[in-house]
Amino acid sequence: MREVGVRMPSPRSHRDNKYIYPLALIDQALPKESRILATALSETQDDKNGPWKVILSNQIRSKLLPKNGDIHEQFLPIDDLVSILSTEPISNLLGEVLNCDSETSRIISSKIMGTETGCESSLKILAILIMIERAEYITRFIEHGIRDDKLPLLLNYQAEIFRNWSPHETDTFCEKQYMVLAPVFDFTRGDHVEWDKKIRMPFLDKLEWKTSGAHGVIAQIKIHSRHQLRGTDSTLGFETNRFALKKFRLSEKDFEQERDALIRFSNANNGHKNLIRLLLSYNRGRKHYLVFPWAQGNLAEFWKTCSSNPKTGYHSRWLIKQCLDISDGLSEVHGNSERLADQTGAGMLGRHGDIKPENILYFGEPDSGQCHLVVADFTLMRFHSTNTVHHTVADQVNFSPTYRPPEVIPASKARVDQSYDVWTLGCVYLEFITWYLIGYAAIREKEFRAPTGELLDSFRTMREKEDGNSRDPDGGFFYYYAWLPRFPKVKKSVRRHSLKPICWSPRRASGTR
């Protein structure tokens, strides 16, 4: 292999030199997109010429994403990096900034491209140097064995690689390097990744944290298609590039607890189609994140935006199937799955702990024939062996007040087991069926109008009216007296509602199968 020796110009000589290449040569070397940009640049110069370092710098800047985002969060997609810095543009750039012959340019170009056997690419380093107007220093990086796999470089003003650079130039390189280091999200493994807080995410839109929960916030993200690995799995979501990103608050314990639960029951290898699937977890600095498929909404939103049609057998079967599938997924969490039968003695008996409509998501358009429900938010999930599954004390359990079971009352020392989830799921089913037969207003609004024209209290209003007898009003499904806290009772409105004949609904299906 021929040794390449190129005299490095001093910073001063670099600034004084001007390399102008004929436009005709630019047209021959660049693809159509680059030729258009080169032509536009040439038209701004009196001599109709444009330096390659300017052309490539402008091409790189034009591809930074997101377009209207924080410049400190912008990244260069992998495919654009490879497209812009192809063999011919690199060779022409080297001839310009190093003032070398074509053979020397070809040899250095092959080193940058990583086409030599066992040679790592230096495309990212070259892109950084182009952006900071130091492309001629690419040979120094190659000679010192610093390739793309060594990035990010730590800030060190005394490093040999930054010899003759000003502190500002070194700072700029170390800052700009993160522009080309946006990671690839591997959704095929469900791994956990640790990233530096300066690493820029391959997101196409500015993050807007809209949905807030007890332990974190959620934003919809769109990930660049070349920065995700999906394999052959088609179940990751219904929109290719859109996902849900959950950022946890300060508690690392909450993050690890939910992640452990998701790995046990919802990953690609042993997951259940009705339990939310964890695609990836990562730390960025000290902040913790989980990535999920993006759902169309939760069950409460589904009730509000979608109209039921109890007159069709298809919708009746759909309702029954969703209830069955959710129960099956929850049964797997509880350790009743045959697949997990050999593990149930090793801490595999779970309790979700927060079943409610807001924690059940729906995927697919409601009328598409593919809409299905998925249990999500595993933050409150707990695991026990068969010997300790009944040992959790009720007053140590977090819960959503409306759907809490009777054993979860203040100062209660009752033991909580998996029947906790059965109660909460039963409450959801009662509302689900009410929505199906009567409509959303009958369960969540203050009142609803019957087909007869009569204005009636909704199911929620009926329960809330009974809270006057309760020590802790919450619109729940039971109440208890302050002087008899150990004897809670199901509310009369709930008993009447659950036992009322279906014919109570004026929308009852008749003559359907």
UniProtKB/TrEMBL annotation:
Location of the Protein kinase domain: 204-513
Domain of life: Eukaryota
Lineage of the species this protein comes from: Eukaryota, Fungi, Dikarya, Ascomycota, Pezizomycotina
Entry GO MF terms: ATP binding; protein serine/threonine kinase activity
InterPro entries: Kinase-like_dom_sf, Prot_kinase_dom
Keyword annotations from UniProtKB, A to Z: Kinase, Transferase
Keyword check for Kinase: yes
One Pfam family hit: Pkinase
Alphabetized PROSITE patterns for the sequence: PROTEIN_KINASE_DOM
This protein's name: Kinase-like protein
Organism: Trichoderma citrinoviride
The keyword Transmembrane appears for this protein: no
